[in-house]
Specification:
The chain is an alpha+beta fold. It has helices spanning about 1-20, 20-60, 90-100, 140, 155-160, 170-175, 220-225, 245-260, 275-320, 320-330, 335-370, 380-405, 410-415, and strands at about 65-70, 70-75, 80-85, 105-115, 120, 125, 130-135, 145-150, 165, 185-190, 195-200, 205, 210, 215-220, 235-240, 270-275. About 55% of the residues lie in helices and about 20% in strands. Helix 9 (about 275-320) runs antiparallel to helix 11 (about 335-370).
Length: about 425
Amino acid sequence: MANTRLLKENLRISFLSIKSHLLRTILTVLIIAFGIMALVGILTAIDAVEYFLNDNFAMMGSNTFSIQNRDIRVHIGGERRRNKSYEPISYQQAMKFKEEYKFPATASVFTYGTGIATLKYKSEKTNPNIQVMGIDENYIKASGLEIGRGRSITATEVQQGSHVVVIGIEIYKKLFTDTKEDPIGKIISVGAGKYRIVGVLKERGSSIGFSGDRSCMAPIANIRQYFSRPNMNFRISVMVNSQNEMEPAIGEATGLLRKIRDDKLGFDDSFAIIKSDNVANMLIKLTSKIQIGATVIGLITLLGAAIGLMNIMLVSVTERTREIGIRKAIGATSKTIRNQFLAEAVVIAQLGGILGVIMGIMIGNLVSLAIGSSFIIPWQWMFGGLILTFFVALVSGIIPANKAAHLDPIESLRYE
């Protein structure tokens, strides 16, 4: 009971001291707050990025891999370098792979026509940033997309190169929201051609380098004919039935495509196989390195805050030397004086810590909002920041507190 009453008294004196030196205290609190804000804010933003990566690549499915052309850089004597480029995967090679790939999986072939198309319907038109893709009948399923209205492109339409398209939700909103018309069956202009809409994708959101919401997908044979260019590159996407089948499926795909592309024994593959979760894991590893850097920056800032707090406490001890002498003269022990100054340091540090945590969460979630991720409450960083400021207070306050505790009461009473 006595200890509780003594703690309350120390806290009361601490707040009175803080109030009497308000400007100096505010500056110290802000220094600590900015240190914690930098730490919590950056770490919260990194958590948001990791959540965004996991969420977007999970849409593709952890049981999906893609095959694309390989382009690597090699060293040629000393510092000189050149790019070694392999022949693009041709349409014939991709389709042959699809026909001969016997593993129990869904294989699809696709290509990119253009990324700067403008789509028009009556008087409405999109910005010139629409991605036009050529796909087969399996692409929608293999890429983890879903049809919201209408249907997907059929095998017959793929073979015939029909003028039909599946559009993303952003295109639908841009062309049809004002007219409130059902888009299915409507004829739109895609570049210089006319196409009939057969389906609208469900909303997906932006992913790394790709947004299905802003894509227009037509039969791959049609895109070959109307959006052709030299050395057009075709890609293959494969979705296996379960994660356990991923490695056998990749092994069989590698052997088959090496045979189709006539890769010589002992030479590297002339193509690259990328698992859907590999990119996410690579980027998450990169964010972990950024996390280490952010932590170092935050700790350096907190070191400056600790020095500032120690300085203010030493000044406070000097200014209150006579007060300390009076307290000792009326019975205060050295332990009581030490605890009083430690309590003051802890109060100032925790005020800065709380303010820093709030600002850090706000800044971190601004980044989260900017990339389209969810609002995050980083409980571990919140508690970690407050615990860190407590230790900063102890480290910064122990020297001034010991100095105050060891002041001679008679000399202190004579201090002017």
